[in-house]
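P.,

For your records, the input lines for the assembly:
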Amino acid sequence: MILSALSVFVVKIKMSITAIITMIVVLGIVWGGLAFFILNARKFEKLKAQDGKE
Amino acid sequence: MGRGLKQEFFSSRWALIIATIGIAVGTGNIWRFSRIVAQNGGGSFLIPWVIFLLIWSVPLIIAEFALGKSTRMGPIGAISKTAGGKYGWMGAFIVFVSTAIMFYYSVVTGWCLRYFFSAVSGDLFEVKDYLGYWNQFSGSYEPLLFHFISISFVAFIVLKGVTRGIEKVTKILVPALIIILFILFFRAITLPNAFEGIKYFFTPDINVILDYKVWLNALTQNAWDTGAGWGLILAYAVYMKKREDISLNAALIGFGNNTVSLLAGITIFSTVFALSSVDAMNQVTQSGPANTGLTFIYLPLLFNKITGSGAVNLFFASIFFLGLFFAAFTSLISMVELSTRTFIDFGFTRNRSIAIIAVFGFLLGIPSALDIDFLVNQDWVWGVALILSGAFIAFAIWRYGINKFRTEIINGFGSDIKIGKWYNYVIGFLIPLQVVVLILWWLISSVSWDTEWWNPFHRENAGTAILQWIIVLAFFIGINKYLVNKTLKEKG
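C-alpha cells returned:
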C-alpha cells in the first residue's frame, strides 16, 4: 500500500525523489511525532487514573 | 493568591492542552506560514523549520510550563522567583510585549470576523476589485467597531474565569477550528492540479537550503507561530494541577501547532496552484498591506472559483474566515489572560483587572484600527522583541541553575517522561546562540533595508524598534523594585 502510494507520487504527480523524501521526513516527524505524543499522553492519563482509584 | 482568591485549575490534562493549542495556533499558522514557505523555497524551508521546532519552540514551551506550574505566578513573579528580584523587569518586558501585540491583534481578529460576515452574507462574492474592497474596509471606521467587538467578547470570556470561561470556550472553538481545517484540506487536495502545489511545497532546492536567510526565517517563524517565549503558556500553566506533566504536554503543543501549520500550508498551496490562472507563486508571496495580501485579497478571489456552485463556494469561504477568526480569537484570549494574571499578581481582583485591560486594550488598539501603518510598525517592533522575551526566559533558568531546574521542576512531581541532559545544552548554549545570531542578522539586514536605519520615525527599521524597546526597558528597570516588591508581597 505504501509502495503504491509512493508510485502515485512518482509516476502520476512526477514528484522528485528528494521531494518525496522531504515530505516523508517532515510529515513523519511532525505528524508522526504528534500521534506518538498523543498516544503516550493517553497511556499516562490512564495510568494516573488507575493510581487515583487505588 | 492576591486578595485571598481561590486558585482555579484546568479540569483535565486535555482541557489544558486544548486551551494551550488555542494560544499557539493563530493567524500566523494560516497566512504567515504559507507566505514564508513560498518566499523561502518551499521544501528547503521546511527542514530547518522542523529543526527549530526541536531546538527553540519545544524547550521554551517546557520552560514556560515549568515556570508557571512551579511559581503559580505570571512572568514578573516567575522570573523574580527563579532569576532573583533584580530581574523582575525582564518578566515585565515579556508581559508588555505580549500586551502590545494584543492591542493590534484584537484589530486583526476583528478583520477576520468582518470577512466572515462578508462571506456569509454573500457580499464577498459580489466584489469585482478585492484590493479596492480591502482598502475601502481598512480605510473606514469599520475596523474600530470589529476591534471593539473582539476585545469585548474576549474580556467577557476571561472574566468568567479559567474553567467556566477560557476552558469552556476553547473546548468548542479549537476542535471546531481543526474540523474546519480538515474540511478545507480535503477539498483543496482534491481540486484538479492541486498536486502541483503540494509538489512545490515539498520540493527542496539544495542551493536555497544553504542560504542562511532561510534558516533565520525558519527560526523566526517558529518563534512567532508556536507562542514559545511569549509568556502566554506560562500564564496558563499557573492553572495546571500539580499532578500534571510538563514535558509531554509541551511536546504536544509544539508538534500540534506545527501540524496545523502544515495542514494550512498544504491547503493554501493546493488551492492557489489549482485555481490560479496567473503565476501562482507570485500570489502566495505577495505581502500586501500588513501582510494581508494572500488572505484578504487573493483567497476570496479563489474561493469564488472553488466549484461551479455559488452556494458551495460561499460555504467554503465562510468556514475559512470562521476558522481564521477562531484561531485569532483563542490566541487573543490568552493575551488578555496574561495581562489579567499580572494584575492579579499585583493584588487586583480578576474583575477589576479585566475592566482595566479591556478599556486600555480598546483605547490603545484604536491607532492600529484606524491606521494600518501604525499596526505594521507595532507588529514590526514587538514581533522582533519576542526573541528577547525568549532570551529572558532562558536567562531566568540559567540563573536558577539549568540542571536543578530540569531535575527538580521539569522532572519533578507529576512528570510522565524525564527530560535528559540535552536540555541543559539547549537552554544554556543553543537558545542564547540563536538569539545572538538572529538579532545580529536582523540589525545588519535593517541597515541594508533602510539607509536611515537609525531614524525612529520610519515604519519598519532598526531605529524605531530599538527606541521603543529602550523606552520600555528603561521604564521597567526604573520601577523594578516596586514591581517585584508588590508582586511578591501579594503572593505572600
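Two observations worth noting. Chain A has a mean pLDDT of 84. Chain A has two helices and no strands.

Regards
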